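Troubleshooting log. The previous structure file for this entry was overwritten by mistake, so regenerating from the original sequence record. Sequence copied from the archived sheet and checked twice against the printout by T.R.
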Amino acid sequence: MNLPPGYSVRPAQIEDAPAALAIMNKLSLQVVREIDDTLEDIIAEWTAPDFDLTRDSRVVYNPDGRLVGYGIFYDAGQKEVPVIDIYVDPDEWAHDHTTAPYLFAWAETRAHENSAVVPPDVRMALHAYTYAEDSWYKTALKAAGFAPARHMFRMQIVFDGVPAALPLPDGFSLREIERDDDWRPILDCIRDAWRDHFGYIEGPFDEHFERWQRRWQERFKPGLWLAAMDGAAVAGVCLCMDNFNDDTGYGWVSTLAVRRTYRRRGLAMALLSHAFVALHSIGKTRVGLGVDADSLTGATRLYERSGMAVKIRYDMFEKELRPGIDTTTREAGE
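Regenerated output below.
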């Protein structure tokens, strides 16, 4: 697949970030009527130590020197199932029929490079996410050989009063996590819970911890990280951020996780209620989170019971690159 004469393509550079963001926000405003990304988010992603901007991004410029397409490839901790994002300026959709196919072909070629490090008997696939209402991208994904595989929700609650905190079950206590705490037990709790999250891949703890801690050292806010404790053991955690996409009135629950052995005791609902109280106390009028629409642990139903409702639906598309053993979680364990 070649681009038309006059078009150029190269790896993204930091100075391309504002133009890439403009395309992403033009799309989200058109489809879901709100901004879904920030410049800070893009730069943080592009400069992350586990992301190779030269190898894992492409920008396409038209003959007028305007950025019209953008592709990104992310495979940290998931070499067998990398995730891609392909964007084409919505103003170009009607007449540009080559930028998207070019970027999909680049992403697939990049994915096949991982066959050198993924065991030969392991299944490989590409994943991509789209707004449920984005018919253009869905058509482009299908043309590139992708098929619908899963749905995700962004859910939210809009406070109409002061939220109430539920008591923790007998025998458990609530504590705020501090920046100088040992965060390893927190991630260990999260990993135990994620073993029942669709698509999860178990990787080496130390690699995961380095990547996870680096991200959260930048986003940590005192009072918004909560842990349910069984004595000295972390039974569950709720990790929140104080804004979503620069909306200072919008709080975000990034992670709600309860260890397998502590489930079905009311810990998740209690943690979530305390998170609502903490976020409301610092001026948040609504709170959101992301969840698998068909959560293997029933998380979607829990959020509905807490008063949350679906705000946006995302569709996950998949393209199998090589058959084999599926190393991702597909069903809940015991």
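The mean pLDDT is 95. Archived copy saved in two places this time.
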